[in-house]
Amino acid sequence: MIDYRSWRLSGKEWGILIIQYSLWVMFHAYLFFHSLIGILFLLPLLIPKIKAYRDRCRRKRKQQMLREWKEALRFIQVSLEAGYSLENSFAAARTELERLVNGNPSVLLDELYLLERKLAMSVRIEDALEDLAQRSGIEEIEDLAQVISLGKRSGGNLIHIIRKMNVSLTNKWEVEEEIQTMISGKKMEQKIMSYMPVGILLYMRITNGAYIRSLYENAVGTIVCLAGIAVMQWAEYYAAKIIRIEV
Length: 247
Known about the structure:
This protein is mainly alpha-helical. 79% of the residues lie in helices and 0% in strands.
């Protein structure tokens, strides 16, 4: 069982990461220090960049699971309204989701298969959902687990509650998409501003290298360049954090 709150890179992802950041380090070492020795100064900066990469992967996986959960919850509601039992509704939702993804990579589909196996071993459905909610960190799954648990004890109208959860989740998704559309321009501006200092320095190196040659010939220039890279990375990190809005 996977703990989706953390992220362990696969061999392929490690390979892409190593190639990508190796090129990044060599390019910046040559541009800012005019020497491959500058790689030694840049290696510590890879730690926050790798952490940021893992966080992006984790958020992307969580968003994919939430999107698939929205569809699965809709299928569960339809099945319950058609007279299916709760357990059979999850099996029907898994079948419909499998048809929907049509062979594409899916995060939730494997978990629905696992949930069916747990139900076959007499595990309570609310306990199986609670386990998935804890591993995924998605509060909508936690809410459904609590609703089912309370509904079984108090005899509440489960179909009506799931219908309201569906409406709430759809509204939340629409609001989040609207926010992402509104800030898409700001994201582009942030990327441009992040690459602007590198572009300016590269332009000066190409057009008038003698003008900035002093940066590469003494310790003060090396310190200035190192400080510049550190400030750029700090600004890029916090700019990305500011424009990351979650509903």
